[in-house]
Prior knowledge:
By secondary structure, the chain is an alpha/beta fold. The protein has two domains: 13-254, Type I PLP-dependent aspartate aminotransferase-like (Major domain) (Aspartate Aminotransferase, domain 2, 3-Layer(aba) Sandwich), CATH 3.40.640; 256-356, Aspartate Aminotransferase, domain 1. It contains nine helices and 14 strands. The chain has helices at 13-24, 41-58, 72-84, 98-107, 223-228, 238-253, 256-277, 302-314, 339-355, and strands at residues 2-3, 64-69, 90-95, 112-118, 140-143, 145-146, 151-152, 166-169, 186-190, 201-206, 281-283, 294-299, 317-318, 329-332. The strands form four sheets. The chain has a seven-stranded mixed beta sheet with strand order 2-10-9-8-5-3-4, with helices on both faces. It has a three-stranded antiparallel beta sheet with strand order 11-12-14. A two-stranded parallel sheet has the order 1-13. The two termini are 28 Å apart. It binds pyridoxal-5'-phosphate.
Amino acid sequence: MHNFNAGPSILPREVFEEASRSVLDFNGTGLSILEIGHRTPLFQAVLDEAIALLREHMGLLPEQEVLFLHGGASTQFMQVPMNLLDETATAAYTDTGVWATKAIKEAKLFGGVDVVCSSKDSGYTYLPKEFTVDPSAAYLHFTTNNTIYGTQWQDLSFFYDKGVPLVADMSSDILSRRVDFTKYGLIYAGAQKNIGAAGVNVVVVNKEMLGKVSRPLPTMMDYRNHIENGSLLNTPPVFSIYVCLLTLRWLKKAGGIAAIEKENERKAGLLYDTIDALPLFKPRAAPEDRSRMNVCFTIEDPAVEAEFLALCKEEGMVGVKGHRLSGGFRASLYNALPYESVVALTELMRSFAQRKG
Ligand SMILES: *Cc1c(COP(=O)(O)O)cnc(C)c1O
Protein backbone atom coordinates (compact mmCIF):
# COMPACT_ATOMS: atom_id res chain seq x y z
CA MET A 1 0.00 0.00 0.00
CA HIS A 2 1.05 3.60 -0.62
CA ASN A 3 -0.45 5.75 2.12
CA PHE A 4 -1.04 9.42 1.21
CA ASN A 5 -3.55 10.02 4.02
CA ALA A 6 -3.72 13.56 5.42
CA GLY A 7 -4.03 12.52 9.07
CA PRO A 8 -3.99 10.21 10.85
CA SER A 9 -1.31 9.25 8.40
CA ILE A 10 1.62 7.04 7.64
CA LEU A 11 4.21 6.35 10.34
CA PRO A 12 7.47 4.46 9.94
CA ARG A 13 7.11 0.68 9.65
CA GLU A 14 9.52 0.15 12.56
CA VAL A 15 7.31 2.32 14.76
CA PHE A 16 4.32 0.07 14.04
CA GLU A 17 6.42 -3.01 14.80
CA GLU A 18 7.88 -1.72 18.07
CA ALA A 19 4.49 -0.33 19.18
CA SER A 20 2.77 -3.65 18.53
CA ARG A 21 5.44 -5.57 20.45
CA SER A 22 4.97 -3.17 23.38
CA VAL A 23 1.22 -3.73 23.39
CA LEU A 24 2.03 -7.33 24.36
CA ASP A 25 5.17 -6.81 26.43
CA PHE A 26 6.58 -3.39 27.17
CA ASN A 27 10.38 -3.43 27.57
CA GLY A 28 10.42 -6.99 28.91
CA THR A 29 8.24 -6.08 31.90
CA GLY A 30 5.59 -8.68 31.10
CA LEU A 31 3.10 -5.81 31.05
CA SER A 32 1.42 -4.12 28.11
CA ILE A 33 2.12 -0.43 27.48
CA LEU A 34 -1.69 -0.17 27.71
CA GLU A 35 -1.80 -1.28 31.34
CA ILE A 36 1.05 0.55 33.05
CA GLY A 37 0.27 3.41 35.41
CA HIS A 38 1.03 6.89 34.17
CA ARG A 39 2.78 7.76 37.45
CA THR A 40 5.19 4.83 37.32
CA PRO A 41 8.94 5.15 36.61
CA LEU A 42 8.22 3.08 33.47
CA PHE A 43 6.02 5.73 31.91
CA GLN A 44 7.99 8.63 33.37
CA ALA A 45 10.97 7.37 31.36
CA VAL A 46 8.84 7.41 28.18
CA LEU A 47 7.64 10.95 28.87
CA ASP A 48 11.10 12.25 29.79
CA GLU A 49 12.73 10.81 26.69
CA ALA A 50 9.95 12.06 24.38
CA ILE A 51 10.30 15.58 25.78
CA ALA A 52 14.10 15.45 25.63
CA LEU A 53 14.01 14.29 22.00
CA LEU A 54 11.54 16.99 21.02
CA ARG A 55 13.73 19.62 22.70
CA GLU A 56 16.75 18.27 20.85
CA HIS A 57 15.05 18.05 17.43
CA MET A 58 13.57 21.53 17.79
CA GLY A 59 16.52 23.20 19.53
CA LEU A 60 14.30 24.78 22.19
CA LEU A 61 15.29 27.35 24.81
CA PRO A 62 15.13 26.47 28.53
CA GLU A 63 12.13 28.79 28.97
CA GLN A 64 10.17 26.93 26.29
CA GLU A 65 8.14 24.19 27.94
CA VAL A 66 7.01 21.06 26.10
CA LEU A 67 3.55 19.73 26.96
CA PHE A 68 1.61 16.70 25.80
CA LEU A 69 -2.09 17.58 26.00
CA HIS A 70 -5.43 16.08 25.04
CA GLY A 71 -8.05 17.38 22.67
CA GLY A 72 -6.10 17.72 19.46
CA ALA A 73 -5.06 20.93 17.77
CA SER A 74 -8.72 22.01 17.74
CA THR A 75 -8.70 22.39 21.52
CA GLN A 76 -5.73 24.72 21.16
CA PHE A 77 -7.88 27.04 19.04
CA MET A 78 -9.67 27.76 22.32
CA GLN A 79 -6.96 27.15 24.91
CA VAL A 80 -4.50 29.57 23.30
CA PRO A 81 -6.72 32.68 23.51
CA MET A 82 -8.06 31.62 26.91
CA ASN A 83 -4.50 31.76 28.28
CA LEU A 84 -3.02 34.57 26.20
CA LEU A 85 -5.76 37.00 25.18
CA ASP A 86 -7.31 39.31 27.75
CA GLU A 87 -10.89 40.45 27.22
CA THR A 88 -9.78 44.03 26.54
CA ALA A 89 -6.83 43.05 24.34
CA THR A 90 -6.64 42.18 20.64
CA ALA A 91 -4.81 39.38 18.86
CA ALA A 92 -3.84 39.38 15.18
CA TYR A 93 -4.85 36.36 13.07
CA THR A 94 -4.03 35.42 9.49
CA ASP A 95 -6.85 33.74 7.58
CA THR A 96 -5.27 31.23 5.24
CA GLY A 97 -7.62 28.27 5.40
CA VAL A 98 -10.23 26.30 7.26
CA TRP A 99 -8.09 25.62 10.33
CA ALA A 100 -7.17 29.29 10.61
CA THR A 101 -10.87 30.22 10.32
CA LYS A 102 -11.69 27.87 13.17
CA ALA A 103 -8.94 29.37 15.31
CA ILE A 104 -10.33 32.87 14.62
CA LYS A 105 -13.84 31.82 15.61
CA GLU A 106 -12.66 30.50 18.97
CA ALA A 107 -10.43 33.50 19.73
CA LYS A 108 -13.42 35.84 19.34
CA LEU A 109 -14.95 34.18 22.41
CA PHE A 110 -12.16 35.58 24.58
CA GLY A 111 -11.07 38.97 23.28
CA GLY A 112 -10.59 41.20 20.26
CA VAL A 113 -9.50 39.61 17.00
CA ASP A 114 -7.92 41.53 14.15
CA VAL A 115 -7.94 39.42 10.98
CA VAL A 116 -4.92 41.03 9.33
CA CYS A 117 -5.17 39.22 6.00
CA SER A 118 -7.22 36.63 4.16
CA SER A 119 -7.04 34.66 0.94
CA LYS A 120 -10.59 33.39 1.31
CA ASP A 121 -11.77 35.16 -1.88
CA SER A 122 -9.41 33.06 -3.99
CA GLY A 123 -10.43 29.80 -2.31
CA TYR A 124 -7.23 29.94 -0.22
CA THR A 125 -4.96 29.19 -3.17
CA TYR A 126 -2.20 31.55 -2.04
CA LEU A 127 -0.76 33.14 1.10
CA PRO A 128 -1.49 36.86 1.55
CA LYS A 129 1.74 38.67 2.38
CA GLU A 130 0.77 42.34 2.36
CA PHE A 131 -0.39 43.18 5.85
CA THR A 132 0.59 45.04 8.96
CA VAL A 133 0.26 43.99 12.57
CA ASP A 134 -0.59 46.45 15.32
CA PRO A 135 2.41 46.37 17.69
CA SER A 136 0.02 46.30 20.64
CA ALA A 137 -1.44 42.94 19.55
CA ALA A 138 -1.24 40.24 22.24
CA TYR A 139 0.15 37.88 19.60
CA LEU A 140 0.09 37.05 15.91
CA HIS A 141 -1.43 33.67 15.02
CA PHE A 142 -0.67 31.84 11.79
CA THR A 143 -0.88 28.36 10.29
CA THR A 144 2.51 27.30 8.92
CA ASN A 145 1.04 24.73 6.50
CA ASN A 146 -2.54 24.73 5.26
CA THR A 147 -3.31 21.04 5.14
CA ILE A 148 -6.55 21.27 3.16
CA TYR A 149 -5.46 23.77 0.49
CA GLY A 150 -1.83 22.76 0.09
CA THR A 151 -0.18 26.08 0.85
CA GLN A 152 2.81 26.52 3.14
CA TRP A 153 4.77 29.56 4.30
CA GLN A 154 8.18 29.04 2.71
CA ASP A 155 10.19 31.61 4.63
CA LEU A 156 8.92 31.85 8.17
CA SER A 157 11.37 34.65 8.99
CA PHE A 158 8.75 36.84 7.28
CA PHE A 159 6.96 36.80 10.65
CA TYR A 160 9.95 37.28 12.90
CA ASP A 161 10.18 41.07 12.67
CA LYS A 162 6.47 41.75 13.17
CA GLY A 163 7.25 42.89 16.70
CA VAL A 164 4.65 40.79 18.52
CA PRO A 165 4.80 37.32 20.08
CA LEU A 166 4.18 34.56 17.56
CA VAL A 167 1.69 31.71 17.94
CA ALA A 168 1.75 29.02 15.26
CA ASP A 169 -0.41 26.06 14.39
CA MET A 170 2.23 23.69 13.01
CA SER A 171 0.02 20.59 12.97
CA SER A 172 0.83 19.46 9.46
CA ASP A 173 4.46 20.43 8.96
CA ILE A 174 6.15 20.32 12.36
CA LEU A 175 9.48 18.42 12.26
CA SER A 176 9.37 18.34 8.44
CA ARG A 177 11.82 21.20 7.84
CA ARG A 178 14.28 23.34 9.72
CA VAL A 179 12.56 26.16 11.61
CA ASP A 180 13.95 28.52 14.24
CA PHE A 181 11.52 27.30 16.89
CA THR A 182 13.02 29.67 19.47
CA LYS A 183 11.23 32.57 17.77
CA TYR A 184 7.81 31.38 18.94
CA GLY A 185 5.83 32.26 22.03
CA LEU A 186 3.64 29.22 21.47
CA ILE A 187 3.58 26.34 18.99
CA TYR A 188 0.92 23.66 18.84
CA ALA A 189 0.44 20.59 16.69
CA GLY A 190 -1.84 17.57 16.66
CA ALA A 191 0.46 14.54 16.71
CA GLN A 192 -1.31 12.54 14.02
CA LYS A 193 0.45 14.09 11.01
CA ASN A 194 4.18 14.09 11.65
CA ILE A 195 4.80 13.30 15.32
CA GLY A 196 2.95 10.09 16.10
CA ALA A 197 -0.48 8.64 16.77
CA ALA A 198 -3.75 10.54 17.14
CA GLY A 199 -4.93 11.37 20.63
CA VAL A 200 -2.31 13.84 21.78
CA ASN A 201 -1.03 17.21 20.77
CA VAL A 202 2.28 18.84 21.41
CA VAL A 203 2.32 22.36 22.84
CA VAL A 204 5.56 24.30 23.16
CA VAL A 205 5.02 27.40 25.21
CA ASN A 206 7.40 30.08 26.38
CA LYS A 207 6.68 30.51 30.09
CA GLU A 208 7.05 34.27 29.76
CA MET A 209 3.79 34.35 27.79
CA LEU A 210 1.74 33.06 30.71
CA GLY A 211 -0.02 34.59 33.70
CA LYS A 212 -0.96 37.81 31.94
CA VAL A 213 -4.73 37.43 31.52
CA SER A 214 -7.14 38.51 34.22
CA ARG A 215 -9.83 35.85 33.77
CA PRO A 216 -9.87 32.80 36.04
CA LEU A 217 -8.82 29.70 34.13
CA PRO A 218 -10.34 26.25 34.57
CA THR A 219 -7.72 23.90 36.03
CA MET A 220 -7.35 21.72 32.93
CA MET A 221 -7.16 24.72 30.61
CA ASP A 222 -4.36 26.56 32.43
CA TYR A 223 -0.99 25.77 30.78
CA ARG A 224 0.76 26.65 34.04
CA ASN A 225 -0.87 23.70 35.81
CA HIS A 226 0.29 21.32 33.08
CA ILE A 227 3.81 22.73 33.29
CA GLU A 228 3.88 22.39 37.08
CA ASN A 229 2.68 18.80 36.82
CA GLY A 230 4.94 17.80 33.93
CA SER A 231 2.05 16.87 31.57
CA LEU A 232 0.68 14.60 34.34
CA LEU A 233 -2.10 16.82 35.65
CA ASN A 234 -4.47 13.97 34.87
CA THR A 235 -4.06 10.67 33.02
CA PRO A 236 -2.24 11.51 29.79
CA PRO A 237 -2.75 9.58 26.52
CA VAL A 238 -0.06 7.07 27.46
CA PHE A 239 -0.05 5.03 24.26
CA SER A 240 -0.14 8.07 21.95
CA ILE A 241 2.82 9.61 23.77
CA TYR A 242 4.67 6.31 23.50
CA VAL A 243 4.13 6.25 19.71
CA CYS A 244 5.45 9.83 19.58
CA LEU A 245 8.58 8.66 21.39
CA LEU A 246 9.14 5.86 18.87
CA THR A 247 8.67 8.27 15.95
CA LEU A 248 11.02 10.83 17.49
CA ARG A 249 13.66 8.10 17.92
CA TRP A 250 13.18 7.09 14.27
CA LEU A 251 13.60 10.71 13.19
CA LYS A 252 16.88 10.94 15.09
CA LYS A 253 18.18 7.77 13.45
CA ALA A 254 17.14 9.15 10.06
CA GLY A 255 19.41 12.14 10.63
CA GLY A 256 17.00 14.55 12.28
CA ILE A 257 15.02 17.42 10.78
CA ALA A 258 17.78 18.59 8.42
CA ALA A 259 18.01 15.18 6.75
CA ILE A 260 14.25 14.63 6.56
CA GLU A 261 13.84 18.12 5.06
CA LYS A 262 16.05 17.14 2.12
CA GLU A 263 14.02 13.98 1.61
CA ASN A 264 10.76 15.97 1.81
CA GLU A 265 12.06 18.41 -0.82
CA ARG A 266 12.96 15.49 -3.09
CA LYS A 267 9.48 13.94 -2.72
CA ALA A 268 7.55 17.18 -3.26
CA GLY A 269 9.88 18.19 -6.10
CA LEU A 270 9.16 14.99 -8.00
CA LEU A 271 5.40 15.31 -7.59
CA TYR A 272 5.19 19.00 -8.53
CA ASP A 273 7.50 18.46 -11.52
CA THR A 274 5.16 15.71 -12.69
CA ILE A 275 2.05 17.86 -12.26
CA ASP A 276 3.73 20.72 -14.13
CA ALA A 277 4.79 18.41 -16.95
CA LEU A 278 1.34 16.90 -17.50
CA PRO A 279 -1.33 19.32 -18.76
CA LEU A 280 -4.07 16.93 -17.60
CA PHE A 281 -3.26 17.77 -13.97
CA LYS A 282 -3.64 21.29 -12.61
CA PRO A 283 -1.81 22.42 -9.47
CA ARG A 284 -4.05 24.07 -6.91
CA ALA A 285 -1.71 26.35 -4.96
CA ALA A 286 0.20 29.39 -6.20
CA PRO A 287 3.71 28.23 -7.26
CA GLU A 288 5.50 30.31 -4.60
CA ASP A 289 3.32 28.98 -1.78
CA ARG A 290 3.27 25.27 -2.59
CA SER A 291 3.23 22.93 0.36
CA ARG A 292 5.80 20.16 0.57
CA MET A 293 3.53 18.23 2.90
CA ASN A 294 0.13 18.30 1.15
CA VAL A 295 0.21 18.48 -2.61
CA CYS A 296 -3.20 19.48 -4.02
CA PHE A 297 -4.13 19.20 -7.67
CA THR A 298 -7.15 18.66 -9.89
CA ILE A 299 -8.34 17.31 -13.22
CA GLU A 300 -10.82 19.62 -14.94
CA ASP A 301 -13.24 16.92 -16.07
CA PRO A 302 -14.99 15.36 -13.03
CA ALA A 303 -15.52 12.06 -14.88
CA VAL A 304 -11.80 11.76 -15.62
CA GLU A 305 -11.07 12.76 -12.04
CA ALA A 306 -13.25 9.90 -10.78
CA GLU A 307 -11.52 7.54 -13.18
CA PHE A 308 -8.08 8.45 -11.86
CA LEU A 309 -9.26 8.05 -8.26
CA ALA A 310 -10.58 4.57 -9.04
CA LEU A 311 -7.23 3.71 -10.62
CA CYS A 312 -5.35 4.89 -7.53
CA LYS A 313 -7.51 2.63 -5.42
CA GLU A 314 -6.82 -0.33 -7.71
CA GLU A 315 -3.09 0.31 -7.43
CA GLY A 316 -3.12 0.37 -3.62
CA MET A 317 -2.82 4.13 -3.28
CA VAL A 318 -4.72 5.37 -0.28
CA GLY A 319 -5.78 8.89 0.67
CA VAL A 320 -5.34 10.59 -2.72
CA LYS A 321 -8.82 12.09 -2.73
CA GLY A 322 -8.85 15.79 -1.83
CA HIS A 323 -10.56 17.20 1.26
CA ARG A 324 -14.31 17.50 0.87
CA LEU A 325 -14.01 21.32 1.00
CA SER A 326 -11.41 21.69 -1.74
CA GLY A 327 -12.09 18.66 -3.95
CA GLY A 328 -9.65 17.23 -6.48
CA PHE A 329 -6.66 15.31 -5.22
CA ARG A 330 -4.37 15.68 -2.27
CA ALA A 331 -1.27 13.62 -1.72
CA SER A 332 0.18 14.06 1.75
CA LEU A 333 3.92 13.48 1.81
CA TYR A 334 4.66 13.41 5.53
CA ASN A 335 8.06 12.46 6.95
CA ALA A 336 7.40 8.72 7.02
CA LEU A 337 6.20 8.45 3.41
CA PRO A 338 8.92 6.76 1.35
CA TYR A 339 10.20 8.35 -1.85
CA GLU A 340 9.18 5.15 -3.65
CA SER A 341 5.52 5.91 -2.97
CA VAL A 342 5.86 9.23 -4.79
CA VAL A 343 7.61 7.46 -7.65
CA ALA A 344 4.70 5.00 -7.87
CA LEU A 345 2.10 7.80 -7.86
CA THR A 346 3.90 9.87 -10.48
CA GLU A 347 4.34 6.84 -12.74
CA LEU A 348 0.62 6.20 -12.50
CA MET A 349 -0.09 9.85 -13.34
CA ARG A 350 2.19 9.69 -16.39
CA SER A 351 0.69 6.53 -17.79
CA PHE A 352 -2.85 7.77 -17.13
CA ALA A 353 -2.15 11.14 -18.79
CA GLN A 354 -0.67 9.35 -21.80
CA ARG A 355 -3.75 7.18 -22.19
CA LYS A 356 -5.99 10.24 -21.97
CA GLY A 357 -3.95 11.88 -24.72
C1 LIG B 1 -5.36 18.49 11.28
C2 LIG B 1 -5.20 19.91 11.63
C3 LIG B 1 -5.87 20.49 12.73
C4 LIG B 1 -6.89 19.73 13.55
O1 LIG B 1 -6.28 18.79 14.34
P1 LIG B 1 -7.16 17.94 15.38
O2 LIG B 1 -6.08 17.22 16.13
O3 LIG B 1 -8.04 17.04 14.59
O4 LIG B 1 -7.93 18.86 16.24
C5 LIG B 1 -5.62 21.81 13.01
N1 LIG B 1 -4.77 22.54 12.28
C6 LIG B 1 -4.12 22.02 11.22
C7 LIG B 1 -3.18 22.89 10.44
C8 LIG B 1 -4.31 20.70 10.86
O5 LIG B 1 -3.67 20.18 9.81
